[in-house]
Structure formats: C-alpha cells, structure tokens
Amino acid sequence: MLCCMPGVAFVPALLVSWSSAAFIISYVIAVLAGHVEPLVPYISDTGTKPPESGIFGFMINISALLGAITMYIRYLLVEKQNELSHFVRSSCNIFSLCIGLMGCIGMEIVATFQELSVPSVHDIGALVAFGSGVVYITLQSIISYKSCPRWNTYFVCHVRMAISVVSCIAFIPMIVFASQISMTKIDWTPGEKDYTYHFLSAICEWTVAFGFIFFFLTFIRDFQ
C-alpha cells in the first residue's frame, strides 16, 4: 500500500503506522510480561524493562527519524507553495521546522535514556518532545489556515486545529499531575499513593501522543 502512494505520501503514512506499532507492541509485551498494569501505564513505562525496552528504543528512534524527514518535507512543500501565493512568512515556516526537530531530538533522548536508569534526563527529553510537538502542530495548523483555500480545504484545517487544541489541553494537566507524583516507578496499582495523579497524567500523555499521530495522518493528502 505504501509503495502505491503517489508523491512522498508514503513518508507520513510510514511514520503514523510505525509509531502506532511502537506504542502498541511495547505495551502488549510489557503487559504480557507483567512489567506494567494494563490500565493506562505511561508510554515510557512500557519500554523500560527488557525485552520491550530494546524494541521500544529501536522503534522510537526510527519514529524520530521519520518525524524529522516528514517535517522537512512539509517545510519544503510550504516553501514551494509560498513562492506562488505568499501566504506566510518564510521565517515562520523555518521556526516551525526548528521546533519540530527539537521534538524529534526529545524523542531520541526518551528512547536512549531509560526512565528508571536516568529519570531526570528521560523526563527532560519527554518534556521537550511533547512540548515542542504541541507547538509544532499548532503552528502547522495556523499555516494551514493561511494557505486556504488554494492549498488546503477548510475541513482539513478544522481537523488539524481540533487535534492541536485537544493536544494543548491535554498537555497542561499531563505536566501538572506528573509533577505531583513523589516517586519514580512503573508498576502502579490502584489505591496506592499518587496513583490518581499517575492515572490522570498517563491518560493525558496517551492523548497527546496519539494526537500527534492523527495530525501527521492529515499530511498524507498534501504529500501526494
């Protein structure tokens, strides 16, 4: 299916499918191995212990690379469109690319430094990845509106902005609730101290992560 897509549409399609598989495979292995509870663990919790840690690290590193390639192609696409209709400043497009690449670097840090091994570095990487990602998709949503109606339909713009708003809303409580957790662990069980904070923060984290995935899914048509 990917090979039959015209243009470079296979790139965001591969990014979406690969990233989804990275999250789901790591989660399934971690749950089956008894390393995490099935009910909404942190994404990083599902890639902390062997054997899922190796799979998680490898697949997230590839996802970061595919993300960087997708963002660069998107940058080139907007630049070329902008030459014809001048709907956005080039500096804004460059800034959006730089923010996106920062998010990819954050993903690399998350994949390289395990949550229980180097928690402070891991948390910084996660904050950079999610924070930069939210800013990136918001900027891209604004750019999409500016390119209407010549280069995008308003329906696609509305979908992108809706995903951006949901991701922004989920990002804030994710950080707030995570900051209230007083211990670093992955085997959470209902009823123990700080479990509620962990549970709510994890829900928000999964919401933001799949918000990114659905956002890049909307790039497929543009990349054709």
UniProtKB/TrEMBL annotation:
GO terms for biological process: regulation of autophagy. The keyword Chloroplast does not apply. Keywords: Membrane, Transmembrane, Transmembrane helix. Belongs to the DRAM/TMEM150 family. The gene is Dram1. This is DRAM1 protein. It is a multi-pass membrane protein. It is found in: Endomembrane system. Pfam families: Frag1. Residues 8-224 form the CWH43-like N-terminal domain. The chain crosses the membrane at residues 7-33, 53-73, 94-112, 124-143, 155-177, 197-220. It comes from the Eukaryota. One of its GO terms (cellular component) is endomembrane system. Its main location: membrane.
